[in-house]
Design brief:
- The protein has helices spanning 48-56, 98-107, 113-126, 142-154, 173-190, 201-207, 225-230, 235-240; strands at 4-12, 23-32, 37-41, 63-68, 71-72, 83-86, 161-165, 194-198, 210-215, 218-223, 247-250, 252-254, 257-260, 263-267, 281-285, 290-307, 310-317, 320-327, 337-341, 346-350, 353-354.
- The chain is an alpha+beta fold.
- Strands 6-7-8-3-9-10 form a six-stranded mixed sheet, with helices on both faces.
- Strand 12 (252-254) and strand 13 (257-260) form a beta hairpin.
- The chain is globular, with a radius of gyration of 24 Å.
- 37% of the residues are buried.
- The structure holds adenosine-5'-diphosphate (ADP) and magnesium ion (MG).
- Residues 48-49, 165 line the site of magnesium ion (MG).
């Protein structure tokens, strides 16, 4: 296992990158701690696969260095990096049996047959592949083949890191849930550093201790699921995580007050620092931290939807939509509605970044 560092890494697929959008990775300075369970979360095209391929060495970054335990490996080829990578689509040897597929990474490194057998059987049990061990891989369904790929990723116990690139895309929903829990369990058992790439927040939040959120080629926040929920450092994190996502509202500062249009929504915190030349000030508050109140922001209720234990209430204030969650059975005022924002979870954002 190893601590993995990316230092001032940038990557572009075009020969002479100039504009911001020429960079698939704009700027990366991230450390992955030894033994951590990480999720790399972000929408399609934000640079997740590019980042994994730079860690594994399939791709050499345009700028910056990659280190394993402090040693520079930027120019070390993939097969010398001691990494297991599981791709989005199955990579299996069709003509080999399931057993031989699973054994391959171990035999390749000269592991003795007795040890190979024990480990193959252990992994097969975990992934429910035992009954298929003697079959040829070609006869398996897409699900089955992807389980072999996962197994091949997990079979070695001496790798620096195991990386999964949206590995459950081709797996059916029920099995997805089962495999995700197994990966989590396996992480706890073997303590390997794992990086699990996904665009699905539920997958990320259930698997990871630390979630690395990416947006347009940059990491916008690294934190625990609770950090991302309670303290989004960027409006993108607020939007992307949570359902519905955080309310992001245009705001301004008036003396000691944070204003939303003509209404006060909070007091300016002492440590608020608004950078010079900033362009846009926004107020972020999650629907969970907004409530009806006798005093506050006057709104008109426009929609109420039932979401099980909660009602999602949509309101309007001077052309802004503000959503809040109201517990099931609790009344929603039909007129003179006013909203209060919990000050502990109301943040000011300048040009997208939290400043309070
Ligand atoms: P993700 O895995 O998050 O979906 P990728 O790392 O695959 O994102 O892609 C990031 C950006 O780099 C996208 O704009 C994508 O079009 C571009 N890109 C990815 N691979 C290549 C490539 N081989 N050649 C050129 N552009 C690429
Ligand atoms: Mg990808």
């Amino acid at each position: 296992m190893a601590r993995i560092g990316l230092h001032n890494v940038r990557h572009s697929y075009v020969p002479n990158p100039k504009a911001d959008e020429d960079w698939a990775l704009k700027h990366m300075d991230v450390e992955w701690q030894d033994g951590g369970a990480y999720a790399l979360l972000g929408p399609s095209g934000c640079g997740k696969t590019t980042l994994l391929n730079i860690i594994s060495g399939l791709l050499s970054p345009s700028e910056g260095t990659v280190t394993f335990d402090g040693t520079d490996v930027t120019s070390t080829p993939p097969d010398h990096r001691n990494i297991a990578q599981v791709f989005q689509f199955p990579v299996v040897y069709d003509t080999m049996t399931v057993y031989d597929n699973l054994a391959f990474p171990l035999r390749n490194r000269g592991v003795k047959e007795g040890a190979v057998d024990a480990r193959v059987r252990e992994i097969a049990t975990m992934l429910d592949l035992t009954s298929t061990l003697e079959q040829r891989a070609s006869g398996l369904t897409a699900d089955g083949k992807q389980k072999i790929s996962l197994g091949r990723g997990l079979v070695r116990s001496d790798v620096n890191v195991i990386m999964f690139d949206e590995p459950l895309t081709v797996i059916d929903p029920h099995l997805k849930w089962v495999l995700r829990s197994k990966l989590k369990e396996l992480h706890q058992r073997v303590g390997a550093t794992m990086i699990y790439v996904t665009h699905d927040q539920t997958e990320a939040l259930t698997f990871a201790d630390q979630v690395v959120v990416m947006h347009e080629g940059a990491v916008v926040q690294v934190g625990t699921p609770v950090d991302l929920f309670e303290r989004p450092q960027h409006t993108f994190v607020g939007h992307f995580i949570g359902s519905p996502g955080m309310n992001v509202l245009p705001g301004h500062i008036d003396g000691s007050k944070i204003m939303l249009g003509s209404s006060t929504v909070g007091k300016v915190p002492k440590k608020l620092e608004i950078p010079e030349h900033s362009e846009k000030l926004e107020i972020g508050v999650r629907p969970e931290f907004v409530s009806f109140s006798s005093r506050g922001v006057p709104v008109r209720v426009t929609k109420v939807s039932d979401a099980g234990r909660f009602q999602i209430v949509e309101t309007e204030h001077e052309n802004n939509t503000i959503r809040l969650l109201v517990p099931e059975g609790k009344p929603v005022p039909s007129e003179n509605a006013k909203l209060a924002f919990d000050p502990k979870y109301t943040q000011v954002y300048v040009d997208g970044w939290a400043v309070s």
